[in-house]
Design a protein that fits this description.
- The protein has about 425 residues and is of the alpha/beta class.
- It is built from 17 helices and 14 strands.
- The protein has two domains: about 190 residues, NAD(P)-binding Rossmann-like Domain (Rossmann fold), CATH 3.40.50.720; about 130 residues, Rossmann fold (3-Layer(aba) Sandwich).
- Helix content is about 45%, strand content about 15%.
- The radius of gyration is 23 Å and the shape is globular.
- Bound molecules: 1,4-dihydronicotinamide adenine dinucleotide (NAI) and uridine-5'-diphosphate-glucuronic acid (UGA).
- Uridine-5'-diphosphate-glucuronic acid binds next to helix 9.
- One of its GO terms (molecular function) is UDP-glucose 6-dehydrogenase activity.
- InterPro entries: 6-PGluconate_DH-like_C_sf, NAD(P)-bd_dom_sf, UDP-Glc/GDP-Man, UDP-Glc/GDP-Man_DH_C, UDP-Glc/GDP-Man_DH_C_sf, UDP-Glc/GDP-Man_DH_dimer, UDP-Glc/GDP-Man_DH_N, UDPglc_DH_bac.
- This is UDP-glucose 6-dehydrogenase.
Protein backbone atom coordinates (compact mmCIF):
# COMPACT_ATOMS: atom_id res chain seq x y z
CA UNK A 1 0.00 0.00 0.00
CA UNK A 2 1.20 3.51 -0.78
CA UNK A 3 1.15 5.91 2.13
CA UNK A 4 1.50 9.70 2.11
CA UNK A 5 2.62 11.35 5.35
CA UNK A 6 1.80 15.07 5.48
CA UNK A 7 4.10 16.94 7.92
CA UNK A 8 7.69 15.85 8.40
CA UNK A 9 8.20 16.70 12.09
CA UNK A 10 8.94 14.23 14.91
CA UNK A 11 5.71 12.33 14.39
CA UNK A 12 5.66 12.41 10.59
CA UNK A 13 9.25 11.25 10.12
CA UNK A 14 8.95 8.53 12.79
CA UNK A 15 5.64 7.27 11.41
CA UNK A 16 7.00 7.30 7.87
CA UNK A 17 10.04 5.31 8.89
CA UNK A 18 7.94 2.86 10.90
CA UNK A 19 5.81 2.11 7.84
CA UNK A 20 8.90 1.97 5.58
CA UNK A 21 10.46 -0.56 7.96
CA UNK A 22 7.22 -2.58 7.92
CA UNK A 23 7.58 -2.80 4.14
CA UNK A 24 5.10 -0.17 2.95
CA UNK A 25 5.89 2.40 0.26
CA UNK A 26 6.02 5.80 1.95
CA UNK A 27 6.11 9.38 0.64
CA UNK A 28 6.92 12.14 3.12
CA UNK A 29 5.52 15.59 2.32
CA UNK A 30 6.27 18.93 3.91
CA UNK A 31 5.76 22.53 2.84
CA UNK A 32 9.23 23.31 4.21
CA UNK A 33 11.35 22.69 1.10
CA UNK A 34 14.64 22.97 3.03
CA UNK A 35 13.48 20.16 5.33
CA UNK A 36 12.47 18.03 2.34
CA UNK A 37 15.80 18.61 0.61
CA UNK A 38 17.68 17.66 3.79
CA UNK A 39 15.53 14.54 4.37
CA UNK A 40 16.14 13.44 0.77
CA UNK A 41 19.86 13.63 1.56
CA UNK A 42 19.36 11.56 4.73
CA UNK A 43 19.56 14.52 7.14
CA UNK A 44 17.08 15.21 9.95
CA UNK A 45 16.16 18.71 11.11
CA UNK A 46 16.03 17.51 14.72
CA UNK A 47 17.91 15.10 16.96
CA UNK A 48 16.25 11.79 17.75
CA UNK A 49 18.30 8.69 18.55
CA UNK A 50 18.29 5.99 15.88
CA UNK A 51 16.18 7.84 13.38
CA UNK A 52 19.09 8.93 11.17
CA UNK A 53 20.23 5.34 10.56
CA UNK A 54 16.74 4.16 9.69
CA UNK A 55 16.31 7.16 7.40
CA UNK A 56 19.46 6.33 5.44
CA UNK A 57 18.46 2.66 5.31
CA UNK A 58 15.10 3.39 3.74
CA UNK A 59 16.29 6.06 1.36
CA UNK A 60 18.59 3.32 0.05
CA UNK A 61 15.88 0.61 0.12
CA UNK A 62 13.63 2.99 -1.82
CA UNK A 63 10.80 2.45 0.71
CA UNK A 64 10.68 6.17 1.52
CA UNK A 65 10.95 9.32 -0.58
CA UNK A 66 10.30 12.97 0.14
CA UNK A 67 8.42 15.61 -1.83
CA UNK A 68 7.07 19.11 -1.36
CA UNK A 69 4.27 18.99 -3.94
CA UNK A 70 0.92 18.22 -2.28
CA UNK A 71 -0.71 17.65 -5.67
CA UNK A 72 1.67 14.82 -6.62
CA UNK A 73 1.58 13.29 -3.13
CA UNK A 74 -2.20 13.33 -2.81
CA UNK A 75 -2.85 12.01 -6.33
CA UNK A 76 -0.39 9.13 -6.05
CA UNK A 77 -1.30 7.80 -2.58
CA UNK A 78 -4.54 6.20 -1.42
CA UNK A 79 -3.72 6.43 2.29
CA UNK A 80 -2.88 9.81 3.78
CA UNK A 81 -1.61 10.46 7.31
CA UNK A 82 -1.90 13.98 8.69
CA UNK A 83 1.03 14.69 11.06
CA UNK A 84 1.21 18.49 10.98
CA UNK A 85 1.64 20.57 14.14
CA UNK A 86 -1.25 21.73 16.31
CA UNK A 87 0.41 24.39 18.49
CA UNK A 88 -1.30 26.42 21.20
CA UNK A 89 -3.15 29.48 20.05
CA UNK A 90 -3.04 32.63 22.23
CA UNK A 91 -6.17 31.57 24.14
CA UNK A 92 -4.81 28.05 24.81
CA UNK A 93 -6.94 26.35 22.15
CA UNK A 94 -5.28 24.12 19.55
CA UNK A 95 -4.39 26.07 16.42
CA UNK A 96 -5.81 23.95 13.59
CA UNK A 97 -4.61 26.11 10.70
CA UNK A 98 -2.13 23.51 9.43
CA UNK A 99 -4.69 20.68 9.72
CA UNK A 100 -7.24 22.77 7.85
CA UNK A 101 -4.60 23.63 5.24
CA UNK A 102 -3.79 20.00 4.50
CA UNK A 103 -7.50 19.09 4.48
CA UNK A 104 -8.07 21.75 1.82
CA UNK A 105 -5.12 20.47 -0.24
CA UNK A 106 -6.46 16.92 0.00
CA UNK A 107 -9.90 18.11 -1.12
CA UNK A 108 -8.57 20.08 -4.08
CA UNK A 109 -6.18 17.44 -5.41
CA UNK A 110 -8.16 14.30 -4.66
CA UNK A 111 -8.58 12.11 -7.76
CA UNK A 112 -10.05 8.89 -6.26
CA UNK A 113 -11.13 7.32 -2.94
CA UNK A 114 -8.76 8.19 -0.07
CA UNK A 115 -8.42 7.21 3.57
CA UNK A 116 -7.40 10.29 5.54
CA UNK A 117 -5.89 9.41 8.91
CA UNK A 118 -5.26 12.01 11.58
CA UNK A 119 -2.20 11.43 13.77
CA UNK A 120 -1.85 15.05 14.88
CA UNK A 121 -3.31 15.69 18.32
CA UNK A 122 -6.60 17.44 17.62
CA UNK A 123 -9.56 18.52 19.78
CA UNK A 124 -12.74 16.52 19.98
CA UNK A 125 -14.80 16.86 16.76
CA UNK A 126 -11.88 17.83 14.53
CA UNK A 127 -12.30 14.62 12.51
CA UNK A 128 -15.89 15.68 11.86
CA UNK A 129 -14.76 19.19 10.84
CA UNK A 130 -12.10 17.65 8.61
CA UNK A 131 -14.82 15.95 6.53
CA UNK A 132 -16.40 19.35 5.98
CA UNK A 133 -13.07 21.06 5.12
CA UNK A 134 -12.22 18.36 2.56
CA UNK A 135 -15.71 18.42 1.01
CA UNK A 136 -15.70 22.23 0.72
CA UNK A 137 -12.46 22.08 -1.29
CA UNK A 138 -13.49 19.30 -3.66
CA UNK A 139 -14.23 20.17 -7.26
CA UNK A 140 -15.58 16.63 -7.75
CA UNK A 141 -17.17 14.63 -4.90
CA UNK A 142 -14.69 11.74 -4.73
CA UNK A 143 -15.51 9.52 -1.76
CA UNK A 144 -13.18 9.43 1.26
CA UNK A 145 -13.10 8.22 4.84
CA UNK A 146 -11.52 9.80 7.90
CA UNK A 147 -9.76 7.85 10.66
CA UNK A 148 -8.41 9.08 13.98
CA UNK A 149 -5.18 7.32 14.93
CA UNK A 150 -3.55 9.32 17.74
CA UNK A 151 0.16 9.03 18.37
CA UNK A 152 1.65 8.21 21.79
CA UNK A 153 5.41 8.27 21.12
CA UNK A 154 7.79 10.22 23.34
CA UNK A 155 10.63 12.33 22.01
CA UNK A 156 13.97 10.81 22.84
CA UNK A 157 12.56 7.29 22.44
CA UNK A 158 10.35 7.89 19.42
CA UNK A 159 11.55 4.90 17.46
CA UNK A 160 11.26 2.40 20.32
CA UNK A 161 7.81 3.73 21.23
CA UNK A 162 6.59 3.43 17.63
CA UNK A 163 7.68 -0.19 17.34
CA UNK A 164 6.53 -1.11 20.87
CA UNK A 165 3.41 0.94 21.57
CA UNK A 166 1.31 0.14 24.66
CA UNK A 167 -1.75 0.32 22.40
CA UNK A 168 -2.91 1.34 18.95
CA UNK A 169 -6.06 3.45 18.98
CA UNK A 170 -8.17 3.68 15.85
CA UNK A 171 -11.34 5.74 15.65
CA UNK A 172 -13.51 5.65 12.58
CA UNK A 173 -17.10 5.47 11.45
CA UNK A 174 -16.03 3.41 8.42
CA UNK A 175 -15.38 -0.29 9.03
CA UNK A 176 -13.48 -0.53 5.74
CA UNK A 177 -11.14 2.38 6.53
CA UNK A 178 -10.60 1.14 10.06
CA UNK A 179 -9.68 -2.34 8.77
CA UNK A 180 -7.23 -0.93 6.22
CA UNK A 181 -5.46 1.23 8.82
CA UNK A 182 -5.35 -1.69 11.28
CA UNK A 183 -3.72 -3.84 8.60
CA UNK A 184 -0.84 -1.36 8.29
CA UNK A 185 0.11 -2.24 11.88
CA UNK A 186 -0.35 -6.02 11.49
CA UNK A 187 3.29 -6.75 12.37
CA UNK A 188 3.24 -4.61 15.51
CA UNK A 189 2.42 -6.59 18.62
CA UNK A 190 0.20 -4.26 20.61
CA UNK A 191 -3.38 -4.26 21.85
CA UNK A 192 -5.73 -2.58 19.43
CA UNK A 193 -8.55 -0.34 20.60
CA UNK A 194 -11.11 0.44 17.94
CA UNK A 195 -13.56 3.16 18.78
CA UNK A 196 -15.28 6.28 17.47
CA UNK A 197 -13.22 9.24 16.17
CA UNK A 198 -14.40 11.48 19.03
CA UNK A 199 -13.40 8.92 21.65
CA UNK A 200 -10.00 8.43 20.00
CA UNK A 201 -9.44 12.18 20.04
CA UNK A 202 -10.40 12.32 23.72
CA UNK A 203 -8.17 9.34 24.63
CA UNK A 204 -5.14 11.26 23.38
CA UNK A 205 -5.82 14.40 25.44
CA UNK A 206 -6.96 12.43 28.49
CA UNK A 207 -3.74 10.35 28.41
CA UNK A 208 -1.39 13.33 28.17
CA UNK A 209 -3.33 15.24 30.82
CA UNK A 210 -3.24 12.22 33.14
CA UNK A 211 0.55 11.82 32.76
CA UNK A 212 0.94 15.55 33.44
CA UNK A 213 -1.27 15.09 36.51
CA UNK A 214 0.99 12.34 37.88
CA UNK A 215 3.99 14.65 37.49
CA UNK A 216 2.35 17.71 39.06
CA UNK A 217 1.01 15.57 41.90
CA UNK A 218 4.51 14.42 42.88
CA UNK A 219 5.97 17.86 42.20
CA UNK A 220 3.51 19.45 44.61
CA UNK A 221 4.20 16.69 47.15
CA UNK A 222 7.93 17.34 46.70
CA UNK A 223 7.40 20.83 48.14
CA UNK A 224 5.87 19.34 51.28
CA UNK A 225 8.60 16.67 51.45
CA UNK A 226 11.20 19.44 51.21
CA UNK A 227 9.67 21.19 54.23
CA UNK A 228 9.19 17.98 56.21
CA UNK A 229 12.65 16.63 55.43
CA UNK A 230 11.26 13.52 53.72
CA UNK A 231 12.84 12.24 50.50
CA UNK A 232 10.30 12.40 47.61
CA UNK A 233 12.30 9.88 45.52
CA UNK A 234 11.97 7.30 48.30
CA UNK A 235 8.29 8.14 48.65
CA UNK A 236 7.62 7.66 44.92
CA UNK A 237 9.68 4.45 44.86
CA UNK A 238 7.44 3.10 47.63
CA UNK A 239 4.30 4.36 45.91
CA UNK A 240 5.30 2.96 42.53
CA UNK A 241 5.58 -0.58 43.93
CA UNK A 242 1.81 -0.62 44.13
CA UNK A 243 0.79 -2.03 40.76
CA UNK A 244 -2.31 0.14 40.77
CA UNK A 245 -0.07 3.22 40.85
CA UNK A 246 2.97 2.03 38.87
CA UNK A 247 6.47 3.55 38.97
CA UNK A 248 6.33 5.62 35.78
CA UNK A 249 5.88 9.38 35.59
CA UNK A 250 6.37 9.81 39.33
CA UNK A 251 9.72 11.55 39.07
CA UNK A 252 9.74 14.87 40.86
CA UNK A 253 11.64 17.66 39.16
CA UNK A 254 11.52 21.23 37.90
CA UNK A 255 8.35 20.46 35.95
CA UNK A 256 7.24 19.00 32.67
CA UNK A 257 8.03 20.74 29.39
CA UNK A 258 7.99 19.80 25.75
CA UNK A 259 5.75 20.38 22.80
CA UNK A 260 2.84 18.37 24.14
CA UNK A 261 1.97 18.26 27.86
CA UNK A 262 1.81 22.06 28.21
CA UNK A 263 -0.12 22.64 24.97
CA UNK A 264 -2.42 19.63 25.25
CA UNK A 265 -3.37 20.42 28.86
CA UNK A 266 -4.25 23.97 27.79
CA UNK A 267 -6.23 22.70 24.79
CA UNK A 268 -8.24 20.28 26.95
CA UNK A 269 -8.94 23.05 29.46
CA UNK A 270 -10.12 25.23 26.57
CA UNK A 271 -12.48 22.51 25.32
CA UNK A 272 -13.83 22.11 28.86
CA UNK A 273 -14.39 25.85 29.17
CA UNK A 274 -16.16 25.95 25.81
CA UNK A 275 -18.49 23.31 27.19
CA UNK A 276 -18.96 25.05 30.57
CA UNK A 277 -17.23 22.23 32.46
CA UNK A 278 -14.70 23.01 35.16
CA UNK A 279 -11.66 20.68 34.98
CA UNK A 280 -10.40 21.90 38.35
CA UNK A 281 -7.80 19.12 38.78
CA UNK A 282 -6.20 19.84 35.41
CA UNK A 283 -6.29 23.56 36.17
CA UNK A 284 -4.20 22.88 39.27
CA UNK A 285 -1.87 20.55 37.35
CA UNK A 286 -0.98 23.43 35.04
CA UNK A 287 -0.68 25.91 37.92
CA UNK A 288 1.67 23.61 39.88
CA UNK A 289 3.80 23.08 36.78
CA UNK A 290 3.96 26.81 36.07
CA UNK A 291 5.20 27.56 39.59
CA UNK A 292 7.57 24.61 40.14
CA UNK A 293 10.71 26.25 38.72
CA UNK A 294 10.10 29.45 40.68
CA UNK A 295 9.37 27.52 43.89
CA UNK A 296 12.70 25.70 43.83
CA UNK A 297 14.70 28.58 42.39
CA UNK A 298 13.57 30.68 45.36
CA UNK A 299 14.76 27.99 47.80
CA UNK A 300 18.08 27.67 46.02
CA UNK A 301 18.51 31.43 45.91
CA UNK A 302 18.37 31.47 49.71
CA UNK A 303 21.16 28.89 49.85
CA UNK A 304 23.38 31.16 47.73
CA UNK A 305 22.31 34.38 49.51
CA UNK A 306 21.01 35.70 46.18
CA UNK A 307 21.85 35.04 42.53
CA UNK A 308 22.99 38.58 41.73
CA UNK A 309 26.52 38.55 40.25
CA UNK A 310 26.82 34.82 40.97
CA UNK A 311 28.04 32.54 38.20
CA UNK A 312 25.61 29.68 37.62
CA UNK A 313 26.25 26.65 35.42
CA UNK A 314 23.21 25.16 33.70
CA UNK A 315 23.52 21.54 32.61
CA UNK A 316 20.93 20.38 30.09
CA UNK A 317 18.59 22.80 28.35
CA UNK A 318 16.37 20.47 26.28
CA UNK A 319 13.01 19.68 27.91
CA UNK A 320 14.23 16.12 28.54
CA UNK A 321 17.33 14.10 27.62
CA UNK A 322 17.98 12.57 24.19
CA UNK A 323 16.30 15.36 22.29
CA UNK A 324 17.32 18.84 21.14
CA UNK A 325 13.74 20.08 21.52
CA UNK A 326 13.58 23.30 23.54
CA UNK A 327 9.84 23.83 23.32
CA UNK A 328 8.57 24.79 26.82
CA UNK A 329 11.84 23.54 28.34
CA UNK A 330 11.93 24.34 32.09
CA UNK A 331 15.65 25.20 31.71
CA UNK A 332 14.73 28.19 29.55
CA UNK A 333 12.37 29.48 32.26
CA UNK A 334 15.17 29.07 34.80
CA UNK A 335 17.68 30.88 32.58
CA UNK A 336 15.22 33.77 32.09
CA UNK A 337 14.67 34.06 35.85
CA UNK A 338 18.43 34.00 36.46
CA UNK A 339 18.90 36.74 33.85
CA UNK A 340 16.26 38.81 35.67
CA UNK A 341 18.19 38.25 38.92
CA UNK A 342 21.41 39.42 37.21
CA UNK A 343 23.35 36.17 37.46
CA UNK A 344 26.09 35.20 35.01
CA UNK A 345 25.03 32.01 33.27
CA UNK A 346 27.17 29.33 31.67
CA UNK A 347 25.22 26.72 29.73
CA UNK A 348 25.93 23.19 28.49
CA UNK A 349 23.83 20.70 26.58
CA UNK A 350 25.13 17.66 24.68
CA UNK A 351 22.98 18.49 21.64
CA UNK A 352 20.57 21.42 22.08
CA UNK A 353 21.66 24.96 21.24
CA UNK A 354 20.75 27.98 23.33
CA UNK A 355 18.22 30.12 21.39
CA UNK A 356 19.61 33.32 19.90
CA UNK A 357 17.40 35.61 22.03
CA UNK A 358 18.91 34.25 25.27
CA UNK A 359 22.54 34.58 24.20
CA UNK A 360 24.47 37.56 25.55
CA UNK A 361 27.69 38.46 27.32
CA UNK A 362 26.21 37.08 30.55
CA UNK A 363 24.64 33.92 29.03
CA UNK A 364 27.10 31.75 27.14
CA UNK A 365 27.07 28.16 25.93
CA UNK A 366 30.13 25.91 26.02
CA UNK A 367 30.87 22.52 24.44
CA UNK A 368 32.50 20.83 27.45
CA UNK A 369 31.02 20.32 30.91
CA UNK A 370 34.33 21.13 32.57
CA UNK A 371 34.69 24.49 30.81
CA UNK A 372 31.04 25.32 31.51
CA UNK A 373 31.50 24.87 35.24
CA UNK A 374 34.68 26.96 35.51
CA UNK A 375 34.37 29.54 38.32
CA UNK A 376 30.72 28.62 38.91
CA UNK A 377 29.18 29.39 42.30
CA UNK A 378 26.61 26.65 41.71
CA UNK A 379 25.40 24.26 39.04
CA UNK A 380 21.74 23.61 38.21
CA UNK A 381 20.92 20.30 36.53
CA UNK A 382 17.90 20.80 34.30
CA UNK A 383 17.68 17.67 32.14
CA UNK A 384 18.99 14.25 33.00
CA UNK A 385 21.38 13.49 30.12
CA UNK A 386 23.53 10.48 30.97
CA UNK A 387 26.61 12.63 30.31
CA UNK A 388 25.88 14.38 33.61
CA UNK A 389 25.27 11.20 35.57
CA UNK A 390 28.54 9.79 34.22
CA UNK A 391 30.56 13.02 34.61
CA UNK A 392 33.65 13.02 36.81
CA UNK A 393 32.20 15.04 39.68
CA UNK A 394 35.33 14.59 41.77
CA UNK A 395 37.31 16.40 39.12
CA UNK A 396 34.60 18.94 38.31
CA UNK A 397 34.60 20.25 41.89
CA UNK A 398 38.13 21.53 41.34
CA UNK A 399 37.08 23.91 38.55
CA UNK A 400 34.12 25.38 40.43
CA UNK A 401 34.35 28.43 42.64
CA UNK A 402 31.85 26.98 45.14
CA UNK A 403 30.86 23.33 45.20
CA UNK A 404 27.08 23.65 45.13
CA UNK A 405 24.75 21.37 43.14
CA UNK A 406 21.06 22.14 42.61
CA UNK A 407 19.75 18.93 41.06
CA UNK A 408 16.49 19.84 39.30
CA UNK A 409 15.93 16.24 38.19
CA UNK A 410 17.08 14.31 41.28
CA UNK A 411 19.46 12.50 38.94
CA UNK A 412 22.65 12.39 41.00
CA UNK A 413 23.28 10.42 44.18
CA UNK A 414 23.03 13.17 46.80
CA UNK A 415 24.94 11.19 49.45
CA UNK A 416 27.76 10.51 46.99
CA UNK A 417 27.94 14.20 46.04
CA UNK A 418 28.03 15.22 49.72
CA UNK A 419 30.89 12.75 50.28
CA UNK A 420 32.76 14.43 47.41
CA UNK A 421 32.43 17.73 49.26
CA UNK A 422 29.51 19.29 47.44
CA UNK A 423 26.57 21.02 49.06
CA UNK A 424 23.82 19.07 47.32
CA UNK A 425 20.19 20.19 46.99
CA UNK A 426 17.63 18.27 44.95
CA UNK A 427 13.88 18.47 44.56
CA UNK A 428 12.11 17.46 47.78
CA UNK A 429 14.95 15.33 49.03
CA UNK A 430 16.57 17.13 51.91
N1 LIG B 1 6.40 15.58 19.13
C1 LIG B 1 5.89 14.52 19.69
O1 LIG B 1 6.57 13.81 20.43
C2 LIG B 1 4.45 14.15 19.50
C3 LIG B 1 3.58 14.98 18.80
N2 LIG B 1 2.25 14.62 18.65
C4 LIG B 1 1.36 15.47 17.88
O2 LIG B 1 1.67 15.29 16.50
C5 LIG B 1 1.52 16.52 15.78
C6 LIG B 1 2.84 16.86 15.09
O3 LIG B 1 3.82 17.08 16.10
P1 LIG B 1 5.36 17.27 15.74
O4 LIG B 1 5.78 16.18 14.81
O5 LIG B 1 6.08 17.47 17.01
O6 LIG B 1 5.28 18.64 14.94
P2 LIG B 1 6.46 19.47 14.25
O7 LIG B 1 6.13 20.89 14.51
O8 LIG B 1 7.77 18.90 14.63
O9 LIG B 1 6.23 19.15 12.70
C7 LIG B 1 5.11 19.53 11.95
C8 LIG B 1 5.52 19.60 10.49
O10 LIG B 1 4.37 19.87 9.69
C9 LIG B 1 4.78 20.68 8.59
N3 LIG B 1 3.63 21.32 7.94
C10 LIG B 1 2.91 22.38 8.36
N4 LIG B 1 1.93 22.66 7.48
C11 LIG B 1 2.03 21.73 6.49
C12 LIG B 1 1.29 21.49 5.30
N5 LIG B 1 0.25 22.25 4.96
N6 LIG B 1 1.65 20.45 4.51
C13 LIG B 1 2.70 19.66 4.86
N7 LIG B 1 3.43 19.86 5.98
C14 LIG B 1 3.10 20.88 6.78
C15 LIG B 1 5.76 21.65 9.23
O11 LIG B 1 6.60 22.26 8.27
C16 LIG B 1 6.53 20.71 10.15
O12 LIG B 1 7.65 20.15 9.51
C17 LIG B 1 1.06 17.55 16.82
O13 LIG B 1 -0.34 17.59 16.78
C18 LIG B 1 1.53 16.96 18.13
O14 LIG B 1 0.74 17.37 19.22
C19 LIG B 1 1.76 13.45 19.14
C20 LIG B 1 2.59 12.60 19.82
C21 LIG B 1 3.99 12.86 20.05
O1 LIG C 1 1.77 13.87 22.85
C1 LIG C 1 2.97 13.90 22.89
O2 LIG C 1 3.68 14.66 22.26
C2 LIG C 1 3.73 12.99 23.78
O3 LIG C 1 3.91 13.68 25.05
C3 LIG C 1 4.66 12.95 26.01
O4 LIG C 1 5.97 12.68 25.49
P1 LIG C 1 7.16 13.76 25.53
O5 LIG C 1 6.60 15.11 25.83
O6 LIG C 1 7.94 13.57 24.29
O7 LIG C 1 8.12 13.29 26.72
P2 LIG C 1 7.86 12.71 28.20
O8 LIG C 1 8.80 11.62 28.44
O9 LIG C 1 6.43 12.43 28.44
O10 LIG C 1 8.30 13.95 29.12
C4 LIG C 1 7.55 15.14 29.16
C5 LIG C 1 8.07 16.02 30.28
O11 LIG C 1 7.73 15.47 31.56
C6 LIG C 1 8.87 15.43 32.39
N1 LIG C 1 8.75 14.27 33.30
C7 LIG C 1 8.46 13.04 32.83
C8 LIG C 1 8.31 11.98 33.68
C9 LIG C 1 8.43 12.16 35.07
O12 LIG C 1 8.30 11.24 35.90
N2 LIG C 1 8.73 13.41 35.51
C10 LIG C 1 8.87 14.48 34.67
O13 LIG C 1 9.12 15.62 35.13
C11 LIG C 1 10.06 15.30 31.44
O14 LIG C 1 11.24 15.75 32.03
C12 LIG C 1 9.60 16.20 30.29
O15 LIG C 1 9.91 17.54 30.56
C13 LIG C 1 3.98 11.61 26.28
O16 LIG C 1 4.77 10.84 27.19
C14 LIG C 1 3.78 10.82 24.99
O17 LIG C 1 3.06 9.62 25.26
C15 LIG C 1 3.00 11.68 24.00
O18 LIG C 1 2.83 11.01 22.78
Amino acid sequence: MNILIMGMGYVGVTTGLLFAELGWQVTGLDTDTIKIQALSEGKLSFYEPGLDLLLKKHIESGNINFISSPEKGIRENAIIFICVGTPSDKDGSADLQAVRGVAQSIGSFMNEYKIITVKSTVPIDTNRKLVQWVQESQSYPHPFDVVSNPEFLREGSALYDSFHPDRIVIGSTSEHASTVIQSLYDQIKAPLFVTTPRTAEMIKYASNAFLATKISYVNELSRLCETLGVNISDVTTGMGMDQRIGPQFLKAGIGYGGSCFPKDSMALLYTAKENQIDLSILDKVVAVNNSQTTHFLNLWEQQLCGFRDKTIGILGISFKPNTDDLREAPALAIIQQLIDKQANIRVHDPIAKLPEHLRSASVQQFDAIEITLQQCDAVILCSEWKDYREANWQQLRTVMNKQVIFDGRNMLDGKEMTKLGYSYFGIGNR
